Structure formats: structure tokens, C-alpha cells
Amino acid sequence: MLLEDLAAQDITRKDIYIQFDKLIGIENSDLYNGIAYNELHQIDPEENKFLFPYEMHPGDIVYDGKTYYNILLNYNIYNDVVLVKLKNDLATHVFQLITDKIEAFEVNNSKYKRISGNQLKKIPSGIYKILYTDENRDIVLMEKHRLKERKNLNDKVTVYMYKKQKSHFVLRKYGELFFLQDKIDFQKVFPGSKKEIVNFYKEYNSLRKSNQSEFMTKLIELLILKK
């Protein structure tokens, strides 16, 4: 079967699910099993805690075993929760989904996945952005964004501000998760590539400081191609 035929089948399947959700009413779906979301604090519009600061974006999400398409959603990075905006005949509601029921979501051509952490390996549970995937080798590089909260008292109003912190990076290799934060971690996961790792850190040190996500992705690509 041609790849074009497979793609056409996926589009058709997606359209069927969209029409089905319209028929039964999205308010009758499991997405309504979340928690009504109300922001309790005044948040700085520039240094905020959301993936999309000013509005929700349409995306697809796998929640409680079912895929929902074209759902308006946003990701609260600091609290590690996904928000969805749902309409019924009477009103529009914003729900905070139950994080443990989220499998994955895709929005603005970026993919995110929830993983269960491992304290012994220093891997925190939560939602990660997928940076690199090699399905043939069962390799996935993921990044967990992190924010630091601070409060600013302005005109007797407390404004909450959020600043980016150093991300956590996790590699799934042959079904096993590995915490990757420095070259020692890389050398443990790729013991036969210590020289390449050291040289890469020296050559791309400026990139590591300016764009850690790109640095990690390039290094993984190098190590994978070496195999």
C-alpha cells in the first residue's frame, strides 16, 4: 500500500472521530471529567507560566485511552497540567485535565508525552516535549520545561512571575529511561562514545549555553548516526 494511501486513511479516520464528537456532543466526552480551572493569581503577561500566553491553540490529545482532535488547549508548564476549552449549547468552560490520564498531545506541530518518573534515576514524572525520535532504533529524546515562580507586590496587588529554569532531559533507549543533564550522563548511556561526547561538548559549548535543546538534539543525532 502506498504511503499516500495510508496518509489518506489517517485523515479519513480523524474526520470520522471529529464528526462523531460533534454528533454526541463533546460535553458528553471524558474530557469533561477534568476539573474546572480558575486562575487564582494575577500573572505577569510577559513572564507567565503557559505554553501559549494569550490564547489556546487547536491540537490533538490522547486522554483516558481516546484521541480527541481539534481541541482548544494550553499547557500550564509550572503546574504541569493541560487545560482544554470546551463548548456546549449554554457556555464555554475551561477544564484542567487529570494529568495521569494524559498519554500525549500534539499542538503547533510539536509533540508532548507524559511519562512516569523514576526517583532512583532522578527522572521526574510529568509532561515532556519530544525533541527527537528514531523509531527504528527505539530512541526518543524528551525535554521537560521548568519554571521558577516569584512574587512581585505592585500597587498592593501581588503579581506572579515565572522565569525559565534549566530543562530536564530524558532519553528513552530500547524501552529504558535515562536522565541526561551533562556529559557524564551521556558517557554512561553511550560508553563507547566518550571521545565523541567530550569533543562535542568542547566544540559546541556556546550552543549548549544559548540553546540547550538544540545542543542535546544534535549530540543525540551524532551518537545515533555513529551506531
Number of helices: 5
What string gives the helices and strands in order?
HEEEEEEEEEEEEHHHH
Structural class: alpha+beta
Gyration radius, in Å:
20 Å
Q: Indicate the percent of residues in helices.
A: 25-40%
What number of structural domains do the residues give?
Answer: 2
Strand content: 35-45%
Task: Report a brief summary of the structure.
With 227 residues, the chain is of the alpha+beta class. It is built from 5 helices and 12 strands. It has 2 domains: 3-181, no CATH class; 182-227, no CATH class.
List keywords for this structure.
alpha+beta, 2 domains, 26% helix
Summarize the structure in words:
The protein has helices at residues 3-24, 183-189, 194-203, 205-210, 212-226; strands at 35-36, 42-43, 57-63, 66-76, 81-87, 92-96, 102-107, 110-115, 126-134, 139-154, 157-173, 176-180. It is α+β, with helices and mostly antiparallel strands and 227 residues long. It has two domains: 3-181, no CATH class; 182-227, no CATH class. Strands 1, 2, 3, 4, 5, 6, 7, 8, 9, 10, 11 and 12 form a twelve-stranded mixed beta sheet that branches. A hairpin with a 4-residue loop joins β4 (66-76) and β5 (81-87). The longest helix has 22 residues, at 3-24. The two termini are 30 Å apart.
